[in-house]
């Protein structure tokens, strides 16, 4: 038995476990810290909770009323935005893959340039133009910019190119199906793995975007959870009770997303292959 | 319009013939597919960029006594001159360039190292490791920064306790260590994601290639160095470019760590400086010029890098 385990295996496993400890440490810390009182947070060793009071912390967190609202807002911004982005970019990517038209490549190059523009660059300019239109401070000011995903168009186009055979579309046309029906019943069905990937990427991207809601919103009731936690964190210096709220809130929202990510892992991998491997 | 008229009567024979000829005109149904995206793209992507560039050429002039309404005057390149001669702003640009020089190699080495370890024949429990490395990608930057912030502050950190007990250096928030502290947060968040990109690339490699190398007597390390790394060149370039773009945009991490240390100023990075100009100083015109400069910088550097690597060998994408 023992002879089968070679030294190389031991080294590889030791490195893998060390890396896992590194990546899991902050998550483990916050889950433990979420069970502590403010006094214990500062007074006891970080990876041990001598006197857990998770229930009390959670009831205080949701007792603020505003935290539950932030979570709902985040789901609305990210969920609706990602859904709209998925539909828009799939339709555009499909059409750019399957119908040649004048200026197609120029448009696609514009989209590719858009992939390289991170959301952070856009936040301030988007604020300026929304402020000119008198739309800052509204739900729409955070939702609408999220419906654009150049990466989604890129992914949809390469996926449609690779996965939908032209012959299939031709035979559907011969059978008398219109172009819209072909898209809905053939295109969308074949592209469903790409749809899930586009949705997930955009969902995470909207959920994680801090700069945009930071500049757009002033009403706390419209905050996404990231902005709310940032606000609480900035208030800790005047009232230490906010530490407990910030830590418990961070634990709850980290756990929410981590669970979502873990359960959808296979979709991520499908999408990564489509996006990163050269055609 | 004509497209619809042509297609309604006798579609049975007309449509396939039309499709085979592949007309270059934008037919109505194509417009219906692409117009919604490109309308939104124009409104929420191109227009803001264009508007920021436009705004950057103006300035607000208030009369000496402030008795009359301030006027908006054409400033030419005035705001750009102001930004580029402002030591705090140029200092912030140099700082993110230094940060990129630190973070990009760390990220590439970590992501590649993890991918090769997981792809090696010796690895066990692959699914568990893959998920635990990838989890931080789902943690928003704000929360990641909060968590690491608590792990950097001596009062709450088990890490500082352990390092201090072992007699090792444990001050993460000093002026000379803060960039590394921020680099650590970025690595923690994205290394697992980049690792997955590389693993996807590695799995596209036919396994027989490794078998052949093993038959020829190559060990795991030689296979990794001579076969695997050259084969994931394209995804490596991809993650380098995206890390580069991300590091130049540094914003959330220093913003969240700021209350915990004096080492971070309100114009620590170009994005923070632009944010501070727009909301702290209410100078949206100068902020627009700064935002434009940041976008240009990101573009020049990432395209420059792609150019450089594409000239040396095959195109990456």
How would you characterize the overall build of this protein?
The complex is a heterodimer of chains A (279) and B (317). Chain A is mainly α. Chain A has two domains: 60 residues; 210 residues, MetI-like (MetI-like fold). Chain A is globular, with a radius of gyration of 24 Å. Chain B has 317 residues and is mostly helical. Chain B has 15 helices and two strands. Chain B has a single domain, classed as MetI-like (MetI-like fold), CATH 1.10.3720. The two termini of chain B are 37 Å apart. In chain B, 70% of the residues lie in helices and 3% in strands. At the A-B interface, helix 1, helix 4, helix 5, helix 6 and helix 9 of A face helix 2, helix 3, helix 5, helix 6 and helix 7 of B.
Characteristic key phrases:
heterodimer; A: 279 residues; mainly alpha; MetI-like fold; 2 domains; 15 helices; 76% helix; B: 317 residues; two-stranded antiparallel sheet; 2 strands; 70% helix; globular; disordered N terminus
CATH topology of the largest domain in chain A: MetI-like fold
Structural class of chain B: mainly alpha
CATH architecture group name of chain B: Orthogonal Bundle
Low-confidence stretches of chain B: 1-20
Q: CATH first level of chain B: which class?
A: Mainly Alpha
- Major sheet size, sense and barrel closure of chain B: 2 strands, antiparallel
Trace the largest sheet of chain B across and list its strands: 1-2
How is the topology of this model organized?
The complex is a heterodimer of chains A (279) and B (317).
Chain A: H1 7-33, H2 38-43, H3 54-63, H4 66-98, H5 104-115, H6 119-132, H7 139-143, H8 150-163, H9 166-174, H10 179-190, H11 192-208, H12 211-216, H13 225-235, H14 241-263, H15 265-276
Helix pairs in contact in A: 1-14, 3-14, 4-8, 4-11, 5-8, 8-11, 11-15, 13-14
Chain B: H1 2-7, H2 11-21, H3 28-55, E1 58-61, E2 71-74, H4 78-85, H5 87-119, H6 126-134, H7 141-152, H8 158-165, H9 178-203, H10 208-215, H11 220-231, H12 233-248, H13 252-257, H14 270-280, H15 284-312
Antiparallel strand pairs in B: 1-2
Helix pairs in contact in B: 3-15, 4-15, 5-9, 5-12, 6-9, 7-9, 9-12, 12-15, 14-15
């Amino acid at each position: 038995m023992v002879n089968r385990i070679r030294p190389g295996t031991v080294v590889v496993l030791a490195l893998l476990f060390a890396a896992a400890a590194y990546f899991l440490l902050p998550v483990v810390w916050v889950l433990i810290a979420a069970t502590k009182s403010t006094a214990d947070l500062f007074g006891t060793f970080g990876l041990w909770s001598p006197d857990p009071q998770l229930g009390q912390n959670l009831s205080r967190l949701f007792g603020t009323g505003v935290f539950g609202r932030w979570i709902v807002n985040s789901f609305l911004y990210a969920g609706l935005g990602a859904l709209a982005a998925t539909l828009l970019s799939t339709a555009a990517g499909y059409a750019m893959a399957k119908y040649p038209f004048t200026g197609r490549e120029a448009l696609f190059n514009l989209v590719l340039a858009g992939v390289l523009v991170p959301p952070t660059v856009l936040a301030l300019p988007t604020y300026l133009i929304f402020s000119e239109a008198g739309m800052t401070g509204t739900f729409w000011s955070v939702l609408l910019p999220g419906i654009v995903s150049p990466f989604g168009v890129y992914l949809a186009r390469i996926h449609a190119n690779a996965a939908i055979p032209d012959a299939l579309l031709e035979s559907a046309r011969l059978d008398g199906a219109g172009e819209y029906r072909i898209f809905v019943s053939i295109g969308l069905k074949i592209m469903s793995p790409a749809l899930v990937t586009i949705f997930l990427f955009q969902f995470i991207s909207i959920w994680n975007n801090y700069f945009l809601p930071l500049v757009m919103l002033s009403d706390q009731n419209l905050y996404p959870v990231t902005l709310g936690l940032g606000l609480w964190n900035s208030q800790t210096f005047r009232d230490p009770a906010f530490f407990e709220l910030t830590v418990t809130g961070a634990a709850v929202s980290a756990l929410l997303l981590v669970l979502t990510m873990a359960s959808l892992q296979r979709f991520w991998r499908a999408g990564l292959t489509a996006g990163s491997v050269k055609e | 319009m004509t497209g619809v008229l042509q297609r309604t009567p006798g579609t049975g024979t007309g449509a396939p013939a039309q499709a085979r000829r592949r007309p270059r005109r934008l037919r109505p149904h194509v417009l219906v597919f692409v117009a919604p995206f490109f309308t939104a793209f124009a409104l929420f992507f191109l227009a803001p960029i264009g508007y920021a560039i436009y705004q950057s050429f103006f300035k607000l002039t208030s009369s000496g006594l402030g008795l009359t309404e301030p006027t908006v005057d054409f400033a030419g390149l005035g705001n750009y001159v102001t930004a580029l001669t402002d030591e705090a702003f140029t200092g912030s640009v140099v700082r993110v360039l230094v940060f990129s020089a630190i973070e990009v190699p760390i990220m590439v080495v970590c992501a590649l190292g993890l991918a090769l370890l997981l792809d090696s024949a010796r690895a066990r429990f692959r699914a568990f490791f893959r998920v635990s490395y990838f989890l931080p990608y789902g943690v928003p930057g704000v929360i990641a920064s909060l968590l690491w912030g608590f792990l950097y502050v001596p009062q709450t950190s088990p890490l500082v306790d352990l390092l201090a007990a072992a007699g090792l250096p444990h001050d993460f928030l000093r002026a000379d260590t803060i960039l590394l502290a921020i680099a650590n947060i970025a690595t923690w968040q994205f290394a697992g994601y980049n690792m997955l990109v590389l693993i996807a690339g590695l799995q596209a490699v036919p396994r027989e290639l490794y078998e052949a190398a093993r038959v020829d007597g190559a060990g795991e390390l030689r296979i990794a160095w001579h076969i695997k790394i050259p084969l994931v060149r394209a995804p490596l370039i991809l993650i380098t470019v995206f890390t580069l773009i991300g590091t130049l945009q540094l914003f959330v991490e220093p913003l969240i760590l700021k209350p915990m240390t004096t080492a971070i100023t309100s114009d620590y990075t170009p994005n923070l400086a632009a944010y501070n100009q727009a909301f702290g100083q209410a100078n949206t015109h100068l902020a627009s010029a700064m935002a434009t400069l940041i976008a240009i910088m990101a573009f020049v550097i990432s395209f420059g890098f792609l150019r450089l690597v594409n000239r040396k060998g095959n195109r990456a994408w």
